[in-house]
Design goal:
heterodimer, A: 6-stranded mixed beta sheet, about 0% helix, about 50% strand, globular, B: about 110 residues
Chain lengths: ~110, ~110
């Protein structure tokens, strides 16, 4: 079945450091790929998405490129801020009749001033 | 516009009891999905409903059931609660049941089973 694997966490960075969070997936066909963010005490928010190979999703300085050859969708940001501290989830949605999302385990990012 | 709302925010139940969680989708959205998020894990898909019909079901036991009402709100019911049912239950709504519409998540209901 479909699955998403995220790198182990947590991750602690200093403000303005470069961020990479790895995500790989297993799925049949051509899934859509997503990064969701969960701030403390809040629900999930869509951060960015890509719906086909080589697409780059971007939002709030975060970027991720859909790499079908490596089945990856790594999240990057050039300069993190304290306000980026949150839990980040990689997810996929297979093509089909419903909108089921398959999530990775999530990774906690803490950014120090 | 109001986002997805869920009630209650928190609740505590005892093993063997039954619980009902409620979700109101964003106005105009006709599809509701339910997810279970156990502490330290990513959300797991439980159900999707569209136009009052079940469109998808995850790998959960029959103790879990749901329904959608004519106003597109939804209830998730869990019978014979187990300790392992303790989790954050998330509801997400989207315009329709098709796979290309974005899902918007509510804040969740935190269920603790003792």
């Amino acid at each position: 079945g479909d699955s998403v694997t995220q790198m182990e966490g947590p991750v602690t960075l200093s403000e303005e450091a470069f961020l990479t969070i790895n995500c790989t997936y297993t799925a049949t066909g051509y899934p859509s790929l997503f990064w969701y963010v969960q701030y403390p005490g809040e629900g999930l928010q869509l951060l960015l998405k890509a719906t086909k190979a080589d697409d780059k999703g971007s939002n709030k300085g975060f970027e991720a490129t859909y790499r079908k050859e490596t089945t990856s969708f790594h999240l990057e940001k050039g300069s993190v801020q304290v306000s980026d501290s949150a839990v980040y989830f990689c997810a996929l949605r297979a093509t089909g009749a419903n909108s089921k999302l398959t999530f990775g385990k999530g990774i906690t990012l803490s950014v120090r001033p | 516009d109001a986002g997805v709302t869920q009630s209650p925010t928190h609740l505590i139940k005892t093993r063997g009891q039954h619980v009902t969680l409620r979700c109101s989708p964003i106005s105009g959205h006709k599809s509701v999905s339910w997810y279970q998020q156990v502490l330290g894990q990513g959300p797991q898909f439980i159900f999707q409903y569209y136009e009052k019909e079940e469109r998808g079901r995850g790998n959960f036991p029959d103790r879990f059931s749901a329904r959608q009402f004519p106003n597109y709100s939804s209830e998730l019911n869990v019978n014979a609660l187990l300790l392992g049912d303790s989790a954050l239950y998330l509801c997400a709504s989207s315009l329709s049941g098709a796979d290309y519409y974005e899902q918007y998540f509510g804040p969740g209901t935190r269920l603790t089973v003792t």
